[in-house]
Specification:
With 415 residues, the chain is an alpha+beta fold. Helix content is 49%, strand content 13%. It binds flavin-adenine dinucleotide. Flavin-adenine dinucleotide is lined by residues 91, 125-128, 132-134, 158-160, 203, 206, 211, 364, 367-371, 373-374, 377.
């Protein structure tokens, strides 16, 4: 967030988050990247102790009861230490707890949300399946009814924190014959008999966060653990798209910020041809573009946070703004990280600086929580809908008529 528009209490919250990020042991970051650590329990415990989990979750369940702007402020600062830690910070407390608080029974708020926000337990979210993540409604994980319970079978993959999770938010088909938006149920599944996780992947970045495969074999779950009721998964999915994508955008700002700082320090000190390389436009302009992109990305994230917090912006417009933020910020971050590496030269490509880790980590941002192609699809759909329903009907100047031959309607051929 821009400091010049923060309130005093937002500044204090930012400083709390900064102090937490400063606490993160260097060894933890290095060991996670080297995959010596598969799940950083101590990180979440410390976040819980500092009451920095669940910024938007009501206070009665252990959260801070604040809004999206504050959530973004903390996510940005949390992202600074490492992308992998930020993913874990967000998935349990920001996504799964939000789903339970919005759609779950009090029993789950007490048994899942309260201990999770203390950092004692963790919850992961499983949408993606081996057969595909973009085609969410084509999921093949299914559940069948058995008395008062549902029996779930299927597989999910690339699940952040699967290795350390005590609970899972799982989408399963419960009515295969229904239209897509009435076909799925979002279940809260405990780590119980039939649940198996495998830490599998040789990830390029975001390592050490327990990302793995989740196998569900005849897993029995009571019907009351179905958020928003049986076949009500679509509404949960739609609501979760905000914390998944806006949260990703905010933490990505923080994760790429150090790349600019490292590049700025380095190019101010490093000399070539008898002068600091900052003085060569080819170098200084890359840093300038990186700073500009970061500020533009930040503007987009926080105007979207304000739109969501206001509750006055139409949900379709919110969907577009959230998708725009996710796409723009993650692509800006990729350019920023690459520009930073470029101006630091060969040493930037080594592990003497953390730039190479930042580049590896940041690459995920354009893929997960919905690829940027899926973001484009949403932006396109929502824009055309909004344009025809709202924008084209607004009482504003019709600039189309301000052309010399605007009245030549026979020249305006559309078919
Ligand atoms: C490290 C990591 C962590 C992750 N964490 C989680 C997690 O915690 N929980 C979870 O559920 N998932 C998680 N994911 C999964 C991630 O969200 C998916 O990988 C992503 O949504 C894409 O799905 P896919 O890999 O199956 O690719 P596919 O869906 O097969 O897509 C492949 C390509 O086709 C394109 N494509 C597909 N359909 C269309 C279309 N209609 N229009 C245009 N282009 C299209 C995609 O954009 C992409 O470029 C994680 C992934 C990684 C790598």
């Amino acid at each position: 967030m821009f400091d010049f528009i923060m309130t005093e209490s937002q500044k204090n919250l930012r400083d709390e988050a900064r102090a937490f990020t400063k606490w993160v042991p260097r060894e933890l970051i290095l060991d996670m990247d080297a995959e010596k650590v598969q799940f950083p329990h101590e990180y979440l415990r410390e976040a819980g102790k500092r009451n920095l989990l669940g910024i938007r979750i009501p206070r009665e369940y252990g959260g801070r009861g604040l809004g999206w702007v504050e959530d973004g402020i903390v996510a940005e600062e949390v992202g600074v230490a490492s992308y992998s830690l930020a993913c874990l910070w967000g998935v349990g407390a920001d996504i799964v707890c939000d789903a339970i608080c919005a759609f779950g029974p009090d029993e789950l708020k007490q048994s899942v949300v309260v201990p999770l926000l203390k950092g004692e337990t963790f919850a992961a979210e499983g949408l993606t399946e081996p057969r595909g993540g973009s085609d969410f409604f084509g999921a093949t994980t299914y559940a069948r009814k058995d008395g008062d319970d549902w029996i779930i079978n299927g597989q999910k993959r690339f699940i952040v924190g699967a290795e350390g999770a005590d609970w899972f938010l799982i989408y399963a088909v419960t009515d295969p014959d229904a239209p897509p938006h009435r076909r799925m149920t979002a279940f809260i599944v405990p780590r119980t008999e039939g649940v198996e996780t495998k830490y599998l992947y040789g990830l390029m970045g975001v390592r050490g966060g327990g990302a793995g495969r989740l196998i569900l074999k005849d897993v029995r779950v009571p019907e009351r653990f179905a958020l928003n009721g049986v076949n009500g998964g679509f509404d949960v999915f739609v609501r979760m798209m905000i914390p998944e994508r806006l949260g990703t955008a905010a933490m990505t700002l923080g994760s790429v910020r150090p790349a600019i700082e490292i590049a700025t320090r380095y190019t101010s000190k490093r000399k070539a041809f008898g002068m600091p390389i900052q003085g060569f436009q080819a170098v200084g302009f890359k840093v300038a573009d990186a700073v500009m992109l970061l500020d533009a990305a930040r503007s987009m994230v926080y105007s979207t946070c304000l739109a969501v917090d206001s509750g006055r912006v139409h949900p379709n417009r919110v969907r577009r703004m959230v998708s725009q933020s996710k796409k723009f910020v993650t692509e800006a971050a990729w350019e920023i990280a690459n520009n930073a590496m470029q101006v630091v030269g060969g040493i930037g490509y080594t592990n003497v600086y953390p730039l190479e880790r930042i580049v590896r980590d940041i690459r995920l941002a354009m893929i997960w929580v919905g690829t940027n192609e899926i973001m484009q699809l949403i932006i396109q759909n929502e824009w055309y809908k909004e344009f025809h329903k709202v924008i084209s009907k607004e009482d504003v100047r019709d600039v189309e008529q301000d052309a010399l031959n605007a009245s030549d309607v026979e020249e305006k051929v559309y078919e």
